[in-house]
């Protein structure tokens, strides 16, 4: 009699394990591509633990950064041109969101655009160059990143050379877009002014300098 109870218990456990196995099938709630695999076959996982990360990338969101002096020309629904060097492609998109607060360091606002991703060739994390056509054209002042310094509280500044007085004077600036080693200066500098590149960290306001013409 005891053996029968043991057998019935084993059969019950087998049915329970078979049900557990049937319940382990995973069904994707959306169509998309697999971004991340967070579990392996045979691994014990608890209820609610994510196993796979799937994303629908038929439409992708592109983030861009706009200087505060150009924000007035940006609007929801505006068309943008997007170049993605990784896949050598140019796509058109539309602005869907404009940030409500500037970055405290760069003074730039985040702008988001939606792009149709035919064939799913644009992948998350790719770097894109966004071009936005504005009603008027403005002159942009750009400096090398080696010229830029910051105060402890994050205020960017450069040293401007006064050729007549042979001195360098500190100038607080506001910066905009950053690309490679080039930084856009939104305010604080004028086109044609000479900025100290090498050894700026050793200068103080009014330091004497020697300017050599190449």
Descriptive account of the structure:
By secondary structure, the protein is mainly beta. It has 1 helix and 14 strands. Helix content is 10%, strand content 37%. The protein has one helix at residues 2-22; strands at residues 33-37, 52-55, 59-67, 79-84, 89-98, 108-116, 129-131, 141-144, 149-150, 156-162, 167-172, 174-179, 182-187, 207-208. Among the domains are: 59-131, Efflux pump adaptor protein, beta barrel domain (Elongation Factor Tu (Ef-tu), domain 3, Beta Barrel); 141-208, conserved putative lor/sdh protein from methanococcus maripaludis s2 fold (Beta Barrel). The model has no long low-confidence stretch (mean pLDDT 81). A 5-stranded antiparallel sheet has the order 3-6-5-4-7, with no helix packed on it.
Descriptive labels:
single chain; 214 residues; mainly beta; Elongation Factor Tu (Ef-tu), domain 3; conserved putative lor/sdh protein from methanococcus maripaludis s2 fold; five-stranded antiparallel sheet; four-stranded antiparallel sheet; 14 strands; 10% helix; 37% strand
N-to-C CA distance: 105 Å
Total of DSSP H or I helical runs spanning 4+ residues: 1
CATH class of the domain at 59-131: Mainly Beta
Low-confidence stretches: none
- Under CATH, the homologous superfamily of the domain at 59-131 reads Efflux pump adaptor protein, beta barrel domain
Helicity range: under 10%
